Amino acid sequence: MATQWGLCGAGKISHDFSVAMKTLPAEDHQIAAIASRSNERAKEFAKKHSIPKVYGSYEELARDPDIDIVYLGVLHTEHWRVGLLFLKAKKNVLCEKPFAMNSRQVKELVEAAKENNVFLMEAIWSRCFPVHAEVRKLLAEEAVGEVKLVKAYFGSPQLHIPRSVEKELGGGALLDIGVYCLQFVLMVFNGERPDSIQASGVLLDSGVDESVVVVMKFSRKRMALCAFSIAARFQNDAVISGTKGSIKVLGPMHCPTTLVVNDKKTEYPLPEPCLPLNFTNSTGLRYEAEEVRQCLLKGLKESPRMPLADSVLLTEIMDEIRKQVGVVFIQDRK
């Protein structure tokens, strides 16, 4: 039986997700419904992507008995509220990153998933890419010896995009793109909590972070360095340096197709999209969709590739970085 998906939000990422779905077998995945607060937008979206059911409210989607999993592609300031709506309606949820605005909200989502015995995953799609699977395999084999330093960079000029710069929309480099650098570090270090975090950054006039550099120390004299910016273009690569060599994930590190291990390069090409995409390499969203299907078939309540404990730790680290850099959102007040 095909996994029946319900899309919540008819924005750019939901478009790309729908296009990515077309690269997977129809007998495995079906988008059964689209919900948007605007019935018009939902209708337009459904027509473009041949989706049978259209809802002009999220509540209607939450009540649909035929939906196996909801993909939450709304603005991240809404993730907590809308996420709780679906979890309490006993719906499995794949929630776009960042999971929520702070660790308190994330813990509430995790708690709601457990209370209602449903599947929940933060859509850190990077973790589902073949490149990342290969990186995990190489690390398990100690292919580069003992890892001493992990570096991850992500810079993308997007000061012209309201959701990137406005505080009310949950703007800033950290929540939008820094999350990818930090999750990579946590993946390499197996979800270990850093012993120390030092962050320095510059803010926009709106009070959100424009550029941030983070240094983390882990046990056994291991370190990580992350830099991210919404003002400058970086190479967007990630490097794992060990006592016997290095692993380099070429940019874009958050949706990679090229891996270099001790100067040996391997390509992992993506399928071509059937419609124009909004974001880089978006047909790679197919990997997280398939990961979710496999988890549901096995009766799992979370993904081993992106466990909920990793999401909680990731958000706790981001809370600490924001504290050090001086970014406060309205959601931080209880």
Automatic annotation (TrEMBL):
Keywords: Oxidoreductase. Residues 133-247 form the GFO/IDH/MocA-like oxidoreductase domain. It catalyses: D-xylose + NADP(+) = D-xylono-1,5-lactone + NADPH + H(+); (1R,2R)-1,2-dihydrobenzene-1,2-diol + NADP(+) = catechol + NADPH + H(+). InterPro entries: Gfo/Idh/MocA-like_OxRdtase_N, Gfo/Idh/MocA_domain, GFO_IDH_MocA-like_dom, NAD(P)-bd_dom_sf. Its EC number is 1.1.1.179, 1.3.1.20. Residues 5-121 form the Gfo/Idh/MocA-like oxidoreductase N-terminal domain. SUPFAM superfamilies: Glyceraldehyde-3-phosphate dehydrogenase-like, C-terminal domain (SSF55347), NAD(P)-binding Rossmann-fold domains (SSF51735). It holds the Pfam family GFO_IDH_MocA_C3. Belongs to the Gfo/Idh/MocA family. This is Trans-1,2-dihydrobenzene-1,2-diol dehydrogenase. It comes from Ameca splendens. The lineage of its organism: Eukaryota, Metazoa, Chordata, Craniata, Vertebrata.
